[in-house]
Records
---
Amino acid sequence: MTEIRMKVNGAVESLDVEPWVSLLDALRERLGLTGPKKGCDQGACGACTVLADGVRINACLALAVQYDGREITTIEGVAHPLQEAFVRHDGFQCGYCTSGQICSAIGMLAEHTAGMPSAVTEPGAGELSEAEVRERMSGNLCRCGAYNGIVDAIMDVAGKESG
């Protein structure tokens, strides 16, 4: 067992974990945070997305011991305009992927604001386009197909943040 300390949703947590325990399992099973979901357990669906020091990561692919001393934010610790925008634009149906979608979108907006390029970034492009949102969010799957509402919600919030 290894003792780790992380700041999770603003509270310092101390955990004893085996070195092979994923961050997702530590959050869900040891801390009772069920917002991040175990969808594929292979990093392909994005349902487990959380923010580590403000950067979006797939918690199922991360070992908890790697995040000793770091700050982790799950959907339970989020207070962001995207949450209301998802409701307003019908950005979810069953809700299984929603926590990962919102955490990913928060990270994605920060990446775009910081000028990090994507596969569709136009040189010198300032505003976030729909194609850019779809590319940057492509690591988060929605089995219900609520993509249009998700994109609309993100565009809505991005427009308010930039304007």
Note: The chain has two domains: 2-76, 81-162.
---
Amino acid sequence: MTGIIDYDAGNIKSVEKALFKLGEEAVITRDRKTLLSADRVILPGVGAFGDAMNKLRAYGLEEVIHELVDQGVPFLGICLGLQLIFEESDENLGVKGLGLLPGKILRIPDEAGVKVPHIGWNSLKFPREGRLFKGLPEDIYVYFVHSYYLKAADEGIVTAETEYGTCIHASIEKDNIFACQFHPEKSSHTGLSILHNFINIDRG
């Protein structure tokens, strides 16, 4: 069973639907016991960094997320969920993220021909092997919706990159922590393959 963390963020139901397509049992919940008993957990979301962290803290979910990660449960952040995994964001200065991994969330720079927010399909490059992309070729296209992007402190955790006005760290992997800036649940068959790979990762 896959637990999907419910913290009133947008786009959670589409993740559930994608998992159902794959034949995976999924539960949207903020219940601590249910999440800790899950085989894997996803933190999806569309919204603002500061509001999301306030909601996670109000619901007592920050502590649950740290417990899950410490117990070796495969944990996937999607879009805003990726950003929350890190330390802080330009979107809401002074608000601390989950701090599971070192890195900052920066605003996509304003440049000629670069529209912000970034909405649309971009191809991925794989600087190193990642379990989410097992069996997938480089230059696959995935769907993005974001104005802010990850700059990981340790580039050794970056498993996918894309170019959009700058080099964007589009996916990371560190032990049992995985994250995608793009939306696999909205990325057609490619995205379903990525989610399939995630739900087949063994608990540590």
Note: The chain has a mean pLDDT of 96.
---
Amino acid sequence: MIVIQLPVGYMDVFCYIIGCENTRDAMVIDPGGNADMIAERAKKENINIKYIFNTHHHFDHTEGNAELKKLTGAKIVMHELEDNLVRGDSKADIRIKDEKLFKLGDIDIQIFHTPGHSPGGLCLYAQGQLFTGDTLFVGDSGRTDLAGGNRPTLGASIRMLMKLPDDTVIWPGHDYGRTPSSTIGNEKRTNINAKEYGYYTGD
């Protein structure tokens, strides 16, 4: 699987281009700006952006939706609870309701509903790679003091993710941590929320 991590926008947002090496079909996760740059990078890699996937509705993750759709013809995907909170051309073409498998070329992507930061938060898991949006950061977790946020709900969502294998690579929605990525095992030992949320495995 192709994984390209790109800083975009102005809030240290991480956008991702993920793609199938065989079919060259690709998806952009959370284009929070810089649509031209994202499209140009995909062209350079000879991959075709078919979907624009939003982990949640906040503007810093959806700012580039409309422009990237114009540039690529890709379909916008998000949870149905989030789509009602997005305006205009950034709204979804495909609305996710339940956890499901999403097909991207030859890749099966497991979609997890992870509310807590926002009601319709989603995470994507495929081939040992977990894209966590604002649910889980390197060393921390998403905030819950915005509309629709709930700390106990977020804790339950993260505990669910912690059941994945320890070597699962975490790709967060913001560059807020010590490193740009982490693993489930590392977060169990070092995340500041690990004890509160009940997944700590350190000493």
Note: The longest helix spans residues 151-161.
---
Amino acid sequence: MKALSTLITIALCFVSCTRTTMVSGTIINCVTGKPIAGMPVSLYAYNGNEPRDSSNPKKVGEANTVTDASGNYALEYSDSGIDDVDLYVDYGKFCFDYFDEKRSANPRPNKSTEVNIQIDSIDADLYIDLQNLSGQSDKAFVRVRCNVLEDTAPCCNYGQGTPVVPGGSASLHFRVSSSRKVPVYWSTSSFSGWNAPHIDSVYCPRNTKTTWTIQF
């Protein structure tokens, strides 16, 4: 009886201590409004029972899936000691894989959360040809709003400036979201944010190389 009582106590503790985090939702393309199929989605869980380094938390486990034909996904992770969870799309490489995202919510540990996501796929190439028509060496500072969802922290810019000799030229390459007019901000002096004295707009078709010339 004592052994049975011990087993029951352990079982009850396991049931009461183990919690489940569930996250589900839909991922769509914010430009086309269509669902994104086959997109990797991951849920990372972090341990709350050990000293926490906020800049590099200890991951204790993860759950992975891909979206179905309708852009739907569902993830579940069970553990007794987690205190935080993160959700990643395409392994979290938004800027470096050339798309941004917007979420309807963030996942919560030990809860069930619906997180719908909009992403902006990058599927066009923009080449900017810089031509220095002046009689002196100069720099061109160029910033491109690479995707529709990009607001204040641009992934695509040449903040240090590109030197161009008198009468010379240089080329810059940007990966951008397609089927829209892409804003191009530029100046011959450094500028912050989107506060450039010159703003152009270039239409970029999908999976197409587009060339735009800036003369200064």
Note: The chain has two domains: 18-119, 124-215.
